[in-house]
Design a protein that fits this description.
This protein has 412 residues and is α/β, with parallel strands linked by helices. It has helices at residues 4-21, 24-37, 52-58, 69-88, 134-137, 150-163, 183-190, 192-201, 203-226, 278-293, 311-314, 334-337, 360-373, 394-411, and strands at 45-50, 97-100, 104-106, 114-117, 125-128, 146-148, 169-172, 265-268, 298-301, 320-325, 343-346, 378-386. The protein has 14 helices and 12 strands. The strands form 4 sheets. It has a 6-stranded parallel β-sheet, sandwiched between helices. It has a two-stranded parallel sheet with strand order 2-7.
Length: 412
């Protein structure tokens, strides 16, 4: 257990979060997300989704008071929720759940990925190929194995339940993947340049490697299902490359009832292959995306890659519902391709809020264009991949305000 002073800090913050979660506004937001995801309203929703480095400018780690690292990480999450509700005021819901991850380990791929870093904190890196010679190295690959320490997991859960007893609903859940797109992992093993050349120089080996990675992902899903380790992501949970998972189209499981992939949203993308011909995506990668998404009820497609060159394939995904419309997408075809049949997950360029002095006209112009292009769609505005707000937290607040103003102007 954390020191008593840490427990007091955590309980006080948890009470503030619980008070926020009990507000009618949070219930209203949850209802809006549900109607939005179920294609029953076309009013755009707004969410600001910064990464760790941008959060450091908004709610820094140094603002925490707890002594132990785990307590500080919990404290930081509470402070983010409070800041989001009291200052940012986007459409992310505050709820009264506190999640404790499983304590687990995972073996590697038989060959450890290697990266050459620039030496700059948060800077770039180059992936080194560790699968240099298919003939010699492919046989070294192994499926990673998950081992859960149920004793430690139970102890951590009980600890959190004791700390937040009577304040928050404590549950155990882990996020076992972000994407099932396969190509991220493939590049970690093969290297980026080598991977791109393989489409022409080593097509059969590339297919063999993709099949291997598919079988691993498929087997991992089966393992997680059989061991009762999956949790539904159909509530206040991040799904795809942006957005919340609220939906009435996937039945909610009763507490303790086993969860399968069919009770969840799935997600695939392949942003690393943005320069690859769409027909090559269709031949090499899409068949595995299609098979994986058949395991889920609803699915999300794409991240930073433009979706429209691959649309004839993507629209075949089982249960496709949320489509990422990145800054590199052609917004002029959203109404034609997506209409009101899918959620158009619009991602404005994060560079627009990275200036120390906020550029109102720049941000407003992009938001206005995005909303006008998606007037006959089911749009959401998700600001993500934010690495900095220019050291000015007000940039995030003003971005949300402009989104609200432009939505009001267009929708009334």
């Amino acid at each position: 257990m954390p020191p008593q002073n840490d427990i007091k800090i955590l309980r006080d913050l948890a009470k503030r979060v619980a008070e926020i979660a009990a507000k009618p506004s949070e219930k209203k937001k949850a209802m809006l997300w549900t109607a939005h995801n179920d294609l029953k309203t076309d009013i755009p929703l707004v969410m600001f989704d910064p990464d760790w480095s941008a959060w450091q400018e908004l709610v820094p780690w140094e603002s925490c008071s707890c002594e132990t690292n785990e307590a500080r990480s919990w404290e930081l999450d509470f402070r983010k929720t409070i800041w989001r509700n009291e200052v940012l005021k986007d459409d992310k819901v505050a709820d009264n759940f506190f999640y404790v991850p499983y304590d687990y380990s995972m073996t590697g791929w038989g060959i450890d990925p290697k990266k050459n870093f620039s030496g700059t904190k948060g800077g770039a890196y180059k992936i080194r190929s560790v699968l240099e010679d298919y003939e010699k190295d492919f046989c070294k690959l192994r499926f990673p194995q998950i081992t859960v320490d149920y004793k430690k997991s139970s102890e951590r859960l009980e600890e959190a339940q004791n700390i937040f007893d009577g304040i928050l609903n404590v549950e155990q859940r882990s996020e076992w993947w972000w994407t099932l797109g396969l190509t991220w992992t493939l590049i970690d093993l093969r290297g980026f340049d080598e991977f791109l050349c393989d489409f022409i120089l080593e097509p059969e080996w590339l297919k063999k490697l993709l099949d291997f990675l598919y079988r691993e992902a498929d087997g991992r899903l089966t393992f997680l299902e059989k061991n009762g380790l999956l949790s539904q992501n159909t509530g206040n949970h991040y799904v795809g490359s942006g957005g919340c998972g609220y939906t009435d189209e996937i039945p909610q499981k009763a507490p303790g009832e086993p969860v399968t992939a069919k009770d969840m949203w799935g997600f695939v993308e392949s942003q690393e292959t943005v320069s690859v011909d769409p027909e090559m995506y269709g031949e090499f990668i899409f068949p595995y995306h299609k098979k994986l998404m058949e395991r889920f009820s609803l699915s999300c497609f794409a991240c930073c890659e433009p979706y429209e060159p691959r649309w004839k394939y993507a629209k075949q995904l089982h249960g496709l519902r949320r489509v990422s419309c990145s800054p590199w997408s052609n917004r002029g075809v959203m109404e034609e391709l997506l209409g009101k049949n899918y959620v158009a997950s619009i991602k404005p360029a994060p560079s627009s809020i990275a200036y120390a002095q906020f550029k109102d006209d720049l941000v407003r112009g992009e938001i206005r264009e995005a909303l006008e292009c998606s007037k006959n769609c089911i749009p959401e505005l998700i600001m993500k991949d934010v690495h900095t707000v220019g050291g000015n937290p007000h940039n995030a607040v003003r971005w949300v305000e402009i989104c609200r103003e432009e939505i009001m102007r267009l929708y009334g």
